[in-house]
Specification:
about 325 residues, 16 strands, alpha+beta, 2 domains
């Protein structure tokens, strides 16, 4: 059963001496808002970490496969629906017969894309949660009888497009950031030719953010959850991922990233009681530590509070 309530949430995470989301168009420098110099982390980056966490913690559990994952071929993932679902196989054959001779055969009542979409939502957590474009499937092709045996494209094995109930905005740092460029060395060379040239050390560069606290807003629609089947169990897995995903995403660039706060607004109804922006405005971040005008050096330099007065029809819970 899908969730019955609308949710919004505010999520805080921080980074110390790391690069939370490099920009490939800028030499992998931390992403910046050019107007405010505040740091940015894309929604895609955060969704990747959620997907990785779910794949790791729910491996082998039915309904919790990941559609968009490393080295995955999306067309082959979509093709699975047409191989593993007996209902879809039969329906697709009926549509094929109808396409061959529309005058002779009756048009099937159920669109086969709808059945394929349902199968994909049932089996893939990230489709059920974030949605996906599932219209990349390949066309089913066959050869007609005749002298030229011309190849004729038939129906496309697709599952349409799914609009997911969970959406994330870009994360933005509370204060402007100043990325630091650090020179690094490696006491080994890549090729024998470089060794013969007398090289014994390779130079490189990396960017870090000394410290930054990021804030991101999230939205969960109960109405869209009905279409994908996003359930309370899926919601619990999402909350777990947001709380723990950085603990399993360590690297040289992200060694010290941590989830700091997860504030959840739960509406009494599926439609909701208040606009999202009013709820987000109720979450206040204040600078309480460090010298005035100097960059923050840690999470203790901030205070986060929720002004819940006047939020009728909405309950507030701090999960972290």
């Amino acid at each position: 059963m899908s969730i019955q309530n609308r949710y919004e949430f505010v999520y805080f995470f921080d980074v110390t001496n790391g690069n939370p989301n490099g920009d490939p168009d800028a030499g992998n420098m931390p992403r910046l808002d050019p107007e405010s110099s505040k740091g940015l982390v894309t929604d895609v980056c955060l969704k990747r970490k959620i997907r990785n966490f779910v794949e790791m913690t729910a491996a082998g559990k039915g309904g919790y496969e990941i559609f968009v994952k490393e080295k995955s071929v999306l067309n082959l993932q979509i093709e699975r629906a047409y191989v593993e679902s007996e209902e879809l196989k039969q329906l697709f054959e009926e549509w094929q017969q109808y396409e061959k001779d529309k005058k002779k055969n009756k048009r099937p009542e159920t669109p086969y894309e709808d059945v394929a979409q349902k199968w994909m939502c049932e089996n893939f957590f990230d489709i059920r949660t974030f949605g996906a474009v599932l219209s990349t499937g390949k066309a089913d092709k066959d050869k007609e009888d005749g002298e030229n045996k011309k190849e004729k494209s038939k129906l496309k094995k697709t599952a349409g497009q799914v609009r997911g109930p969970v959406q994330l905005a870009f994360a933005q740092s509370i204060d402007p950031i100043v990325p630091v460029e650090v020179a690094i060395t490696r006491v080994a060379v890549t090729s024998e030719e470089e060794k013969n040239q007398g090289k014994d050390t390779m130079m490189g560069r990396k960017y870090i953010v000394p410290y930054a606290l990021y804030r991101v807003h999230g939205f969960i629609s109960a109405n869209l959850a009905v279409k994908t089947g996003f359930s309370d169990e899926d919601l619990a897995k999402l909350w777990q991922a947001l709380q723990l995903m950085f603990e399993h995403d360590r690297s040289a660039a992200r060694g010290e990233m941590a989830a700091r706060k997860l504030i959840v607004f739960k509406h009494d109804t599926a439609l909701g009681s208040l606009p999202a922006h009013k709820l987000f405005d109720a979450v206040k971040v204040e600078r309480v530590g460090g010298e005035s005008g100097t960059p923050a050096s840690g999470f203790a330099d901030y205070q986060i509070r929720v002004d819940s007065d006047g939020l009728s029809g909405v309950s507030v819970e701090e999960l972290l």
